Each structure stands twice: as structure tokens, then as C-alpha cells.
Amino acid sequence: DLLASVGRLPPEQAGPVAGETVRLKSELVKPARDRDPGRMRALLSSLARAVATVAPLAEMVTDITDLIDRLPH
User: Fold this and answer.
1) DSSP annotation of 6
2) pLDDT attached to residue 23
3) Which of 10, 16, 30, 64 could form a cystine bridge with 48, CB 3.0-4.6 A?
């Protein structure tokens, strides 16, 4: 859903957000023992900052924030 929504971002944001979304997906498909929670947290935080200024994607910010909160600290 996140990657599909990137097209609604301004062009200058779409490329970086798409890249970070792909990196996040790559991290999530790794076996649990190989995932880096710190990297996932950083990517999610970056994505939240990138889409926070785009009003139609405000719900995504909430979803991303919820994911950040669920990660082990």
C-alpha cells in the first residue's frame, strides 16, 4: 500500500520515498533473526517525515507511527 501511494507524492519526494519503501520491504522479508530493528525504525521514521506534509497521506503517517511503536527497542 505504501509503495502504491508514492505516486500521490510531489515528484521531488516520490523517488526517495519509493527507495526507502523498497529498502523497508527488503528488511521485512528477511528472516526475523536477520532483521535490523534499528534500521527498520529509521526507515519508518524517514517515511513518516516524508509523507507528513502531504495531507491525503495523513492516515499513512498514523499507520507508520503505529509500526514504529511495535518494534522492539
Assistant:
1) G
2) 92
3) 64
Angle at CA of residue 45, ends 22 and 58, nearest 5°: 90
Rounded Cα–Cα distance for residues 44 and 71 (Å)? 10
Tell me, what amino acid is at 28? L
pLDDT in tens, 5-57: 777 777 888 888 889 889 988 998 999 899 999 999 898 888 888 777 665 56
Measured in degrees and rounded to the nearest 5, phi and psi for residue 25 equal -60, -40
What CA–CA distances, in Å, run from 48 to 10, 34, 53? 15, 24, 9
> What is the DSSP-derived secondary structure letter of residue 10?
-
Q: Residue 69: how many CB atoms within 10 A of its CB?
A: 10
What is d(CA 68, CA 45) in angstroms, rounded to the nearest whole number? 7
CA pair distance 42, 36, nearest whole angstrom: 10
